[in-house]
Amino acid sequence: MTDAAGTGPPRPPARRPPFAAALAAVAVAAVVLRLAFVAVVDPQVPEIGDASAYRLLAVNLAEGAGYVRPFDELLLGVRRPTAEYPPLFPALLAIPSALGAESTHAHRVVLAFVGGGTVVLLGLLGRRIGGRRVGIVAAALGAAYPMLILPEATGMAEALYAPLVVVVLLAAQRAIARPSLPAFAALGAAAGAAALTRAEGLFLGAAVALACGVAARGGIAPARRVALVAAAAAVMVGCVAPWTIRNAVRLHAFVPVSTNYATLLDGANCDATYAGEQLGQWRETFSSHGDAARDLPQAQACFEGFDVADPAFDEAEAAAHHRDDGLAYARAHAGALPKVMAVRVARTFGVFAPRQQVDFESLEGRPRAWQMAGTVAFWVLAPLAGAGFVLARRRGAAVAPLVVTLAVVAAVAAATYGQQRFRIAAEPAVLVGAAVTLVAAARAGMAGPARPGR
Q1: Mean pLDDT throughout 107-119?
Q2: Residue 81 phi, psi dihedral angles, 5° rounding
Q3: Residue (of 69, 57, 65, 50) closest to 94 by Cα position
Q4: Contact, 17 vs 127, CB < 8 A?
Q5: Do the beta carbons of residue 404 and residue 412 sit within 8 Å?
Q6: Nearest in space to 82 (alpha carbons), one of 54, 45, 112, 110
Q7: Which of 149, 224, 276, 449 counts the most CB atoms within 10 A of its CB?
Q8: Closest CA to 270 of 216, 317, 223, 333
Q9: Distance between CA 376 and CA 44 in Å, rounded?
């Protein structure tokens, strides 16, 4: 039987696949894409660099050597305790290493599956912010986004830090919607794990907890808000404390998370990074190390390297020396700091000398074409994300924690140096915000223009 118009009975609306099934499909596609990237692109990481250090730390852990300086062990056969790198990422890689999968390629395969988990978490966060469609779109964006794929393919700690940031943001959503001691404690635990992966996770956790305390719903008294934020901070510190205590015992110094901040400060505050082509970057000069020497007077040297050949070398003591050098230079050139800090932030967000920045970051093993693709993708996604934050806020979503991640990234970049890799804590928020805008635009397009008289 047909209706009066002869078109037949109306068709029932097409059934959408369940959210879990759709998200699982996107995650599987993300893992396949990452495995293909590893097999086809095969990024070549430097033999001496952060990625190689993480792998060697993992192998040392798997063999029972503990956290020892990886290249001292490799090149000098000397085992010295270290806190140069936070412990959680090497600990993750130590699991496959203990099972015999200790090569760079094997670790990349493991991290491809970690990337699939990141995509799932992005989908859950997107659904929390804007609903089912936003969740799927956010996951799909994350599946193909070069700035998430590259850390996984090059074996960098951001591969683990990214999903932990999303966990922090998910915990923040719960803490705002249902403020309670367990909810804020969970937020603190997630932030503690993030801090044990990258040290700036401490600042991220503190800032997000504060934002949650301010935005918490339910008419909570100010004193209660302060108590909840304090609880989150206490749990975060408690998670990091065992590592800090270990550092005090092994290094005989107070090192909350990492000594790496010292070399960072020294290399980011020197003549070469306060003017000229490398303004706002980080530089090592190794002014007294043979073939690596630069034609620079000692007064212009940046980070000169550690004298690890000295039998009396002490990592914490050397780090303190370089920290003091960097801070002394910054104080002596305080008038130039505003310009330098602004450029650092602009470099991190990919808007200052982008081609040069891509060249610089490719030195760590990231293929230049993919690094440039990630830069361009961010240019497209960032304004969409800004619009998405506004739309989501108007609909009652708690977007403050997402916006806070961008502020933390900017603050950390201003205090350190410009590097797009350091933007990783803000990437999940950008992807979710962009997904909100894309879904809203698609809905507006399907609705079509308003008809006259209606």
Answers
A1: 98
A2: -65, 150
A3: 57
A4: no
A5: no
A6: 54
A7: 149
A8: 333
A9: 22
For the residues of 129-152, what is the DSSP string, one character each?
HH-HHHHHHHHHHHHH-HHHHHHH
Contact present, 133 and 23 (Cβ < 8 Å)? no
Q: If you write DSSP's letter for every residue of 396-453 in order, what string do you get?
A: T---HHHHHHHHHHHHHHHHS---GGGGGGGHHHHHHHHHHHHHHHHHHHHH-SPPTT
As given in the structure block, the two tokens for residue 168 are 């922090």
The count of residues in the chain is 454
In degrees, rounded to 5, the angle at the alpha carbon of residue 144 between the alpha carbons of residues 30 and 186 is: 70
- The structural domains of the chain, with segments of one domain joined by +, span 19-444
DSSP secondary structure of 239-293: HHHHHHHHHHHHHSS--SS-SHHHHHHHHHSSHHHHSSTTTTS--B--TTSGGG-
The closest of 174, 212, 211, 167 to 191, measured between CA atoms, is 167
Cβ-defined contacts of 72-77 (< 8 Å, 24+): 72/308, 76/308, 76/309
Measured in degrees and rounded to the nearest 5, phi and psi for residue 331 equal -65, -40
Side chain identity, residue 351: V
Residue-by-residue DSSP string for 347-396: HHTT-SSHHHHHHHHHTTT--HHHHHHHHHHHHHHHHHHHHHHHHHHHTT
Percent of the chain predicted with pLDDT > 70:
92
Give the residue carrying structure tokens 């929390």.
128
CA 177, distance to chain mean position in Å, is 25
pLDDT-based confidence at residue 242 (cuts at 50, 70, 90): very high
Distances in whole angstroms, Cα of residue 350 to Cα of each of 250, 358, 408, 440 = 39, 9, 16, 26
DSSP summary character for residue 10: P
Model's pTM, two decimal places?
Answer: 0.92
Query: Do residues 278 and 286 lie in contact, with contact meaning Cβ atoms separated by under 8 Å?
Result: no
3-state secondary structure 179-199: CCHHHHHHHHHHHHHHHCCCC
Look at the block and give the residue holding tokens 């015999």. 100
Sequence-distant contacts of 378-382: CB under 8 A, at least 24 apart? 378/147, 378/349, 378/350, 378/420, 378/423, 378/430, 379/350, 379/351, 381/141, 381/145, 381/430, 381/431, 381/434, 382/349, 382/430, 382/434
CA angle 107/108/111 to nearest 5° reads 90
Check pLDDT > 80 for residue 157: yes
- State the CB neighbour count (10 A cutoff) for residue 264: 20
